[in-house]
Design goal:
62% of the residues lie in helices and 14% in strands. It contains eight helices and six strands, in the order H-H-E-H-H-E-E-H-E-H-H-E-H-E. Helix 2 packs across helix 3 and helix 3 crosses helix 4. By secondary structure, it is α+β, with helices and mostly antiparallel strands. The chain has three domains: 68 residues; 56 residues, Arc Repressor Mutant, subunit A, CATH 1.10.10; 69 residues, 2-Layer Sandwich (Ribosomal Protein L30, Chain: A). The chain has a three-stranded antiparallel sheet.
């Protein structure tokens, strides 16, 4: 069964192919010097319906897909941020957040700086120049996940070269059949486990990352 993401990508490809093909054929036909006016009118209508409309549809679907991916990324980063705050008792440094989120150092710093402005955080700089963001949990504790919350383990990327190893580990972790695990890992992001404790989620992530997968832990 095709996933929603794959169906959207397939629809974009089909609409783009139809639109480009119709546009090229229409332009080639339009350039014929002896084309009757009536046929030009029909050609113009075909160009609008079979050329421009599919291209506009593919652009709209592409934009929608991009927005969905951005929303998922924002949710993933915020979950990691709240988890880091709770575990660090309000203190988060750039290196730790970069490792947990798989962002570059500059992107991790930019994200934490945005959250610092949002929550009025302060800063500590150690002797080596390392920057630590300090958030007052007394003021913003209600926004943080409590120790009783549950987590989901989500695979966000599987390099083809490591796919078989990841599937083997997934099968051991989930107890599913090979075919079920293969189907689960076919499209990313893929939710591997939901409503589990943080230690168990971290164990899943550690074992999957050890064989090449990129894994995120999200708050349910």
């Amino acid at each position: 069964m095709l996933s929603r993401l794959r169906l959207q990508k397939l629809a974009i490809a089909l609409l783009l192919t139809l639109g480009l093909t119709s546009t090229v054929l229409s332009l080639q036909r339009w350039r014929e010097p002896n084309l009757p006016p009536a046929e030009r009118q029909e050609l113009l209508a075909a160009f609008l319906l079979l050329g421009m409309a599919p291209l506009a549809g593919s652009a709209w679907l592409g934009r929608s897909l991009q927005q969905t991916a951005q929303t998922a990324q924002d949710r993933r980063l915020r979950s990691i941020f709240f988890e880091s705050l709770r575990l660090g008792q309000g203190r988060v440094n750039v290196l730790t957040f970069s490792m947990q989120s798989h962002l570059s150092g500059s992107d991790a710093k930019a994200y934490l700086s945005d959250r610092a402005r949002e929550f009025n955080a302060t800063f500590d700089v150690d002797d080596s120049g390392g920057l630590t963001y300090c958030f007052d949990l007394g003021d913003y504790g209600a926004a943080l996940p409590s120790a009783e919350v549950t987590y989901s383990v989500v695979i966000t990327a599987i390099p083809d070269i490591h796919r078989r190893q990841v599937i083997r580990v997934l099968q051991k972790l989930t107890g599913l059949s090979w075919s079920d695990v293969k189907a689960l890992a076919k499209e990313t992001p893929a939710s591997v486990k939901t409503k589990v404790s943080l230690p168990l989620a971290q164990e899943f992530r550690s074992r999957l990352e050890a064989v090449g997968a990129t894994v995120s832990i999200l708050v349910d």
